[in-house]
Design brief:
The complex is a heterodimer of chains A (156) and B (382). Chain A has helices at residues 11-39, 43-61, and strands at 68-72, 78-83, 86-91, 102-106, 111-114, 117-120, 123-126, 129-130, 134-143, 146-153. Chain A has 156 residues and is an alpha+beta fold. In chain A, strand 9 (134-143) and strand 10 (146-153) form a beta hairpin. In chain B, 41% of the residues lie in helices and 12% in strands. Chain B contains 15 helices and eight strands. Chain B has helices at 2-37, 40-60, 62-66, 102-119, 132-135, 155-158, 170-176, 186-193, 219-228, 271-277, 292-302, 308-311, 327-332, 336-342, 368-374, and strands at residues 75-80, 95-98, 142-153, 199-200, 258-267, 322-324, 359-365, 377-378. In chain B, strands 1, 2, 3, 4, 5, 6, 7 and 8 form an eight-stranded mixed beta sheet that branches. Chain B is extended and about 95 Å long. The relative contact order of chain B is 0.15. The chains are: A alpha+beta (156), B alpha/beta (382). Chains A and B meet through helix 2 and strand 1 of A and helix 15 and strand 8 of B.
């Protein structure tokens, strides 16, 4: 094979060129795509992630005997619940939690208890709270030496 | 042989120095990024860019716009005379504004209003797509809100012998004080910034008979517009106006009073047609439409009244603020009922042209009732 200057490529050069092309196809393109995926966060997921963070902060800042309120401003079809002492928000648009659209944060210091129920796609889901324009109340209690934060919809 | 060894040694040293400098460079860059990551300015710029991108992509295609999230994080502001407002925003980054006078309070709020209006495109950009609302679980129309900032008022330190937060009058401040570094008032700035002559309005002054009250609005032009409208445009009847002055409205009485400064854009079913009319938004975001539409929009603003929706049960100086109907949204929004429901203070009133929408920055007490009454979708990151 000849290059532009009319010189013949050596086998070594050819292998390098092929490897470079392969590297671009196999590594750089997927890497670029992954980076795009990593940078692109849908609006509702962005909101859910921040909500979970704020709920978690509130859980950790609670004091005995003082209840706190918070207004949730996430999107419809997103719900708050607990999962092995993690506070989670998940998209239930398809009737169940979409694992790819779930954001959780572990609470190391306190146990969390979400009470109340929501009807999602005709089914009742216990211990779930809608993220869409809902006001919730946090209360802290002690039980057998454990600190438990209860999260419930604010009663009107 | 000796020379070769020396060369190799030289190359090795050069490489080490190069790598070392590279690490230092990356370190400095990371430190810089870390510093700006949490600054208010960075959040504002990120939001502004996402707004432009959303508007541009809406101009290009509706579908693509659905992929463009508005990356607008709600700022948490604490207005205080020495406190921290930690109970309002536990575990969050709070921007503290230390104030000494009631004017300082007004300034802090006015600055947020201005920043919100600027950040969200000054009413010139369409941010809502027909496809987006259903995707978010809503119908085709609705009021899309972006909560630019939540402002906590540290009541304990703001009510002292020398400072009374109830004396803060955001409206008057915006109408009379100049924007820092500029030679025009907040009101003039907003009016100039709008392609359609947005006015800042105070409920009791929007009688149509008070020639001195409308900022950036030509009253004679409004009168002419009404005369030429053949009954389409009317003045809001006196009894529908809210007489209460902003300075008369007190801050919330609850334990931790908090305000929300939010940008509201009402979406309508006619958006597709609107976008056809206004061509591609991309590259023309600063398009300043003129003529009939602009004039009509001005008259719409001229008849702003205190929205009953907003003021019922509201304790704070709601609607200090800024309403505007951009030409783009004038074309865009074709659902009168929704517009009335959410933009009652920037409407034509009974019997008026039903084809309009609105952009507005509102100051409301931050609570569920207000958010529910103002918004169908909240797009900001809490």
């Amino acid at each position: 094979m000849m290059n532009k200057k009319g010189q013949t490529y050596t086998n070594e050069e050819l292998v390098k060129i092929v490897l470079a092309v392969l590297a671009i196809i196999a590594i750089l393109i997927p890497l670029g795509y992954k980076m795009y995926q990593g940078l692109y966060v849908p609006q509702d997921v962005l909101q859910a992630r921040e909500t979970v963070k704020q709920v978690s902060s509130m859980v950790n800042s609670m004091k005995l005997g003082v209840s706190q309120n918070m207004v949730l401003t996430g999107q419809k079809n997103w719900f708050l619940y607990t999962e092995t002492n993690q506070i989670c928000a998940c998209d239930f648009t398809k009737g169940t939690c979409d694992p790819n659209r779930k954001r959780c944060l572990e609470s190391k210091e306190r146990e969390i208890e979400v009470t109340g129920y929501e009807e999602i796609g005709g089914k009742i889901f216990d211990n779930h709270i809608s993220l869409y324009l809902t006001e919730i109340t946090f209360t802290l209690r002690q039980e057998n030496g454990k600190e438990i934060v209860k999260i419930a919809k604010k009663s009107v | 042989m000796k020379n070769k060894d020396l060369d190799k040694k030289g190359i090795a040293q050069t490489t080490v120095v190069g790598v070392f400098l590279l690490i230092i460079g990356v370190g400095i860059l990371l430190m810089f990024l870390y510093r700006i990551q949490y600054s208010e300015l960075a959040d504002t710029e990120v939001c502004r860019e996402s707004v432009t991108l959303r508007a541009a992509s809406l101009g290009a295609t509706y579908k693509f716009a659905e992929l463009v999230p508005l990356n607008c994080k709600t700022s948490k502001i604490c207005i205080t005379n020495g406190g921290e407002c930690k109970s309002n925003f536990p575990g969050e980054t709070i921007l503290t504004k230390k104030v000494k006078t009631s004017n300082d309070i007004s300034k802090a709020i006015a600055d947020q209003v201005l920043s919100c209006w600027d950040m969200m495109g000054q009413g010139r950009m369409t941010l809502v797509s027909e496809g987006l609302a259903p995707k978010l679980g809503f119908g085709k129309v609705g009021a899309h809100c972006t909560i630019c900032s939540r402002i906590a008022l540290d009541k304990e330190t703001l009510n002292t012998n020398t400072l009374n937060m109830d004396e803060a009058d955001v409206y008057s401040y915006m109408a009379t004080r100049t924007v820092p570094g500029k030679d025009f008032t907040y009101a003039q700035y907003i009016a100039q910034g709008s392609p359609t002559g947005v006015a800042i309005t105070r409920p009791e002054q929007i009688t149509g008979d008070n020639p001195n009250s409308l900022y950036g609005v030509d009253k004679a032009a409004v009168d002419k517009e009404i005369a030429e409208s053949g009954g389409k445009l009317t003045r809001i009847p006196e009894e529908q106006k809210t007489k209460k002055a902003l300075s008369d409205i007190k801050f919330p009485e609850n334990k931790d009073p908090e305000l929300a400064v939010m940008y509201v854009q009402v979406a309508g079913a006619g958006l597709k047609k609107a976008l056809t009319n206004s061509a591609l938004v991309a590259g023309t975001v600063f398009l300043s439409p003129a003529g009939k539409v602009a004039t009509v929009a001005i008259s719409a603003v001229a008849f702003v009244v205190g929205a009953p929706v907003l003021l019922v049960g509201v304790v704070v100086g709601a609607i200090a603020v800024v309403g505007g109907v951009s030409a783009e949204t004038y074309f865009a929004y074709r659902n009168y009922d929704v517009s009335m429901g959410y933009c009652g203070d920037v409407s034509f009133g009974t019997g008026a042209d039903k084809d309009f929408g609105c952009n507005a920055v509102r100051i409301v007490p931050y609570n569920l009732e207000n958010l529910k009454s103002q918004c169908t979708v909240i797009e900001s990151v809490p």
